[in-house]
Design goal:
Protein name: Flavin-containing monooxygenase
Structural class: alpha/beta
Number of strands: 3
Family: Belongs to the FAD-binding monooxygenase family.
Organism: Multifurca ochricompacta
Shape: globular
Strand content: 5-15%
Keywords: Membrane, Transmembrane, Transmembrane helix
Order of helices and strands: EHEHHHE
Radius of gyration: 18 Å
Transmembrane segments: 12-29
Largest sheet: 3 strands, parallel
Distance between the termini: 20 Å
Length: 129
Protein backbone atom coordinates (compact mmCIF):
# COMPACT_ATOMS: atom_id res chain seq x y z
CA UNK A 1 0.00 0.00 0.00
CA UNK A 2 3.01 2.35 0.18
CA UNK A 3 6.43 2.86 -1.40
CA UNK A 4 9.52 1.67 0.45
CA UNK A 5 10.86 5.25 0.55
CA UNK A 6 7.80 6.45 2.45
CA UNK A 7 8.69 6.59 6.11
CA UNK A 8 5.79 6.17 8.46
CA UNK A 9 5.47 8.83 11.15
CA UNK A 10 6.86 7.80 14.52
CA UNK A 11 6.33 9.39 17.92
CA UNK A 12 9.13 9.14 20.48
CA UNK A 13 9.11 10.28 24.09
CA UNK A 14 12.34 10.87 25.95
CA UNK A 15 12.32 11.29 29.72
CA UNK A 16 14.71 13.92 31.04
CA UNK A 17 16.48 16.91 29.50
CA UNK A 18 19.96 16.06 30.73
CA UNK A 19 22.82 14.88 28.54
CA UNK A 20 20.96 11.81 27.27
CA UNK A 21 17.73 13.62 26.44
CA UNK A 22 19.51 16.47 24.68
CA UNK A 23 21.82 14.18 22.71
CA UNK A 24 18.89 11.91 21.79
CA UNK A 25 16.96 14.89 20.45
CA UNK A 26 19.92 15.95 18.32
CA UNK A 27 20.70 12.45 17.00
CA UNK A 28 17.12 11.30 16.38
CA UNK A 29 16.31 14.42 14.38
CA UNK A 30 19.30 13.74 12.13
CA UNK A 31 18.92 9.97 11.77
CA UNK A 32 15.21 9.16 11.93
CA UNK A 33 12.98 10.52 9.18
CA UNK A 34 9.43 11.56 10.04
CA UNK A 35 9.99 11.57 13.81
CA UNK A 36 7.95 13.51 16.34
CA UNK A 37 10.13 13.67 19.45
CA UNK A 38 9.12 15.15 22.78
CA UNK A 39 11.51 15.41 25.73
CA UNK A 40 9.73 15.62 29.08
CA UNK A 41 11.64 17.24 31.94
CA UNK A 42 10.18 17.44 35.45
CA UNK A 43 12.35 20.42 36.48
CA UNK A 44 11.90 24.02 35.31
CA UNK A 45 15.18 24.01 33.37
CA UNK A 46 17.33 21.79 31.18
CA UNK A 47 20.55 20.11 32.26
CA UNK A 48 19.56 17.13 34.37
CA UNK A 49 22.09 16.54 37.15
CA UNK A 50 23.92 19.74 36.22
CA UNK A 51 20.72 21.76 36.71
CA UNK A 52 19.36 20.05 39.84
CA UNK A 53 22.43 19.47 41.99
CA UNK A 54 23.75 22.60 43.63
CA UNK A 55 26.21 20.98 46.03
CA UNK A 56 29.52 22.67 46.60
CA UNK A 57 31.56 20.37 44.37
CA UNK A 58 29.80 21.71 41.29
CA UNK A 59 30.80 25.30 41.97
CA UNK A 60 33.75 26.85 40.15
CA UNK A 61 37.01 26.53 42.02
CA UNK A 62 38.39 29.61 43.73
CA UNK A 63 41.65 27.75 44.22
CA UNK A 64 43.86 26.10 41.64
CA UNK A 65 42.20 24.93 38.45
CA UNK A 66 43.72 21.52 39.21
CA UNK A 67 41.51 21.17 42.31
CA UNK A 68 39.48 18.13 41.26
CA UNK A 69 37.00 18.51 44.12
CA UNK A 70 35.25 21.44 42.44
CA UNK A 71 34.98 20.03 38.93
CA UNK A 72 33.71 16.97 37.14
CA UNK A 73 36.13 14.10 36.62
CA UNK A 74 36.36 14.37 32.82
CA UNK A 75 39.16 16.57 31.53
CA UNK A 76 37.59 19.50 29.70
CA UNK A 77 39.98 19.20 26.76
CA UNK A 78 38.98 15.56 26.16
CA UNK A 79 35.53 16.55 24.97
CA UNK A 80 36.67 19.80 23.38
CA UNK A 81 33.57 21.79 24.28
CA UNK A 82 34.73 23.94 27.18
CA UNK A 83 36.71 27.17 27.06
CA UNK A 84 40.48 26.94 27.36
CA UNK A 85 40.40 29.07 30.50
CA UNK A 86 38.23 26.62 32.43
CA UNK A 87 41.10 24.62 33.82
CA UNK A 88 41.84 20.96 33.44
CA UNK A 89 38.38 19.86 34.60
CA UNK A 90 35.18 21.60 33.55
CA UNK A 91 33.12 23.05 36.39
CA UNK A 92 29.45 22.25 36.93
CA UNK A 93 28.32 25.69 35.74
CA UNK A 94 30.42 25.31 32.57
CA UNK A 95 28.82 21.94 31.84
CA UNK A 96 25.34 23.38 32.36
CA UNK A 97 26.18 26.33 30.10
CA UNK A 98 27.37 23.87 27.41
CA UNK A 99 24.07 21.98 27.57
CA UNK A 100 22.14 25.23 27.26
CA UNK A 101 24.22 26.19 24.22
CA UNK A 102 23.43 22.84 22.57
CA UNK A 103 19.70 23.33 23.16
CA UNK A 104 19.92 26.80 21.64
CA UNK A 105 22.16 25.77 18.73
CA UNK A 106 19.87 22.93 17.65
CA UNK A 107 16.65 24.78 18.54
CA UNK A 108 15.49 21.99 20.84
CA UNK A 109 13.26 23.97 23.21
CA UNK A 110 10.31 23.44 20.89
CA UNK A 111 10.66 19.70 21.62
CA UNK A 112 11.30 20.01 25.37
CA UNK A 113 8.40 20.23 27.81
CA UNK A 114 9.59 21.60 31.15
CA UNK A 115 7.78 20.87 34.40
CA UNK A 116 6.20 17.74 32.99
CA UNK A 117 6.58 14.44 34.76
CA UNK A 118 5.87 11.14 33.01
CA UNK A 119 4.08 8.91 35.49
CA UNK A 120 2.86 6.11 33.25
CA UNK A 121 3.24 4.70 29.77
CA UNK A 122 1.57 1.71 28.13
CA UNK A 123 1.70 -0.13 24.81
CA UNK A 124 -1.43 -0.99 22.85
CA UNK A 125 -0.58 -4.03 20.78
CA UNK A 126 -3.72 -3.77 18.65
CA UNK A 127 -2.99 -0.24 17.42
CA UNK A 128 0.81 -0.46 17.60
CA UNK A 129 0.91 2.67 19.78
Amino acid sequence: QFAIEEYRPIKVVCVGAGFCGILAAIRFARKVPNIELTVYEKENGIGGTWFVNKYIHLQPSVQSSMNRDSHCDIPSHSVGHFPDGSGFYASGPEILAYLKRMVEKYKLMRQIKLQHELTQASWDEATGK
